[in-house]
Amino acid sequence: MKKLFIVLIGLLLIAPAITKAQGCMEPKSDEGISVIGYLQPQWKFDEADGKYTNSFYFQRARLGVTGTIPYDFTYYAVAEFSPYIGGPYLLDAFITWKRLGPWANVSVGQFKMPFGLELSTPCQSLHTIDRSLVVNELASPFRDLGVLVYGGTPLFQKEYNVLEWKLAFTNGTGMNKTDNNRRKDITARVIISPWDFVHIGGSYKYGSVLADGNSDKLTRFGADLSVEKYNFLFQAEYIGGVDDGFKLEGGGCGQDPTITPATGEFKKNGYFAMLLYKTPWNIQPVVKYESFEPDVDVENNIKNSTTVGLNYFFNEWTRLQLNYVINDFAGSTKPNNKFMAQLQVVF
User: Fold this and answer.
1) I want to staple 243 with a disulfide (CB 3.0 to 4.6 A). Which of 15, 151, 155, 266 is the partner?
2) Contact (Cβ atoms closer than 8 angstroms) between residue 194 and residue 180
3) Each residue's pLDDT tens digit, 39-51
4) How many structural domains compose the chain?
5) Domain residue limits at 163
6) Is the pTM of this model over 0.85?
7) How many CB atoms lie within 10 A of CB 223?
8) Which long-range contacts (CB under 8 A, 24 or more apart) does 2-6 make?
9) Rounded to 5 degrees, what are φ and ψ at 316?
């Protein structure tokens, strides 16, 4: 309880000096401090490996502040309070300089990595309760400390950004951690929108994770597509990667990946495809298929999942999500399916 209180007070104290660049939520006005956050209580029935469990818990419980400082600066700071993912701890905290916007903006601090479509989607705007396994495995760590430069431009007299780009230089060790070597990770993302309803993205990441930082190499690359028309939304994303000199497993939202020094290269990849339709009754059915191969050189280790879900919007701040996830993991002879229900309120 004392730790939670310290984090909350700390957020309020640093509010006049931290900034907003690619945070999940926007300031409510151009003056003063905006208190932001959201709650995601959840219930899950899980039959992992044939062991049936069910529990209530908080998927996420986030609180923060954001705002602007005349004339060229914004700040953004959010803490995670859910003990289910290790809270409380500082999640995002950065300052953004916007004098050259929208062509170029500069953020300094701790922020979400600009890699891929689903990772770039704010947690409170995800179309399924959980992110895809390939994103959790190959886009981790989700957050890092460093410098982010980003921008966009409405070329050819368009009212939307035809081209968007992001470039980050970070420690590579994850959130709230100093660097463990002399090298920095480089992450880049480009989005091209030939029409306002079509977005084509590409991402790339290169760095190192071991303490010496000389003999290991981390490489990630991805491509994604988003098409939204006539209340339909289709999204698809592919991510590939190579661990050279180590093996990285896990990670994702609020979690640290497991890093094991190893000899040689470990190639991995995966993808997801998702279709949604927003009905006139604020009901949005969703179907999602995903596949992840943790080591392409090992046979019979692919993990496939199908999610059938329903999103109901009470209003623009409150949403109920129901997901049934059918898992088909190679080599597993026991059920691994789960049902989840999540109620969300944003403030």
Assistant:
1) 266
2) no
3) 999 999 998 877 8
4) 1
5) 2-346
6) yes
7) 16
8) 3/88, 4/81, 4/87, 4/88
9) -75, -10
